[in-house]
Amino acid sequence: MEEKKALLIVDVQNDFCPGGALAVPEGDKIVPILNKYMMIFSKKKWPIFASRDWHPKESKHFKKFGGPWPEHCIQNTKGAGLHPDLRLPKETILLSKGMDPDKDSYSAFQAVDAKGTGFFELLKSSGINGLFVGGLATDYCVKSSVLDALKHVFKVKLLMDAIRGVNINPEDSEQAIEEMVRGGAEKMTLQELSQYEKNRKPGR
Ligand code: VGL
Ligand code: ZN
User: Is there an atom of ligand 1 within 6 Å of 23 CB?
Assistant: First the structure.
């Protein structure tokens, strides 16, 4: 069966980048790489999805209310904004998650588009069976999204040059990558994708 691909960019938001409320070390370094992936996908007319963490002010996700995290990505704040250098093509489908004050919602499969349609439904209705995943953070939302994608039997490519982790424990990202690969995700880089695309016959 022909693979129908889509790109998922997970939570590349100001609060997850250096200077933000829950900064991922070097989180902003992936932005130029993601821009290149987006150019490739955009040229091919392959769909691009961008998820965002979109929390209410009061959420059990936050330390203040008994959860694990400092307050971050609060709806309509600067911290919740996508990184300003991220060049999202206009056809990018924005997904939001984390709106339920009682849930953590790490996975993009818990996210919905502007009309409230879930990510899985959106993928199914466009016949997508292959997902390329990059973004933040490797050890939380990227991992959770990839494991869910594998559960739903999507082919997953993990974009090794376009992910970064929180690493509360130094090995967290490494372990997350191992877990995703064990589950069936394949590692990929921009160079490999460009090379692969060059070698494909036109029209395929
Ligand atoms: C995330 C921690 C808390 C993430 C979201 O996007 O990886 N991590 N909320
Ligand atoms: Zn969050």
Answer: no
Helix (H) or strand (E) holding 37: helix 31-44
* Residue 71 Cα to ligand 2 middle (Å): 8
Q: Find out whether 128 and 165 touch, Cβ atoms under 8 Å.
A: no
Assess if residue 86 is contained within a domain. yes
Closest ligand relative to 73 C-alpha: 2
Length of the chain: 204
Residue 94 lies in a domain: yes
Dist. CA 73 → ligand 2 center (Å): 7
Residue pLDDT tens, the chain, 204 long: 689 999 999 999 999 999 999 999 999 999 999 999 999 999 999 999 999 999 999 999 999 999 999 999 999 999 999 999 999 999 999 999 999 999 999 999 999 999 999 999 999 999 999 999 999 999 999 999 999 999 999 999 999 999 999 999 999 999 999 999 999 999 999 999 988 777 876 655
Q: Which domain holds residue 80?
A: 5-199
* Domain assignment present for 204: no
Q: Enumerate the active-site residues.
A: 11, 97, 141
Residue 28, domain member (yes or no): yes
Asked whether the beta carbons of 37 and 159 are under 8 A apart, the reply is: yes
Phi, psi of 129 (to 5 degrees): -130, 0
Q: How many domains does the chain have?
A: 1
CB 54 less than 6 A from any atom of ligand 1:
no
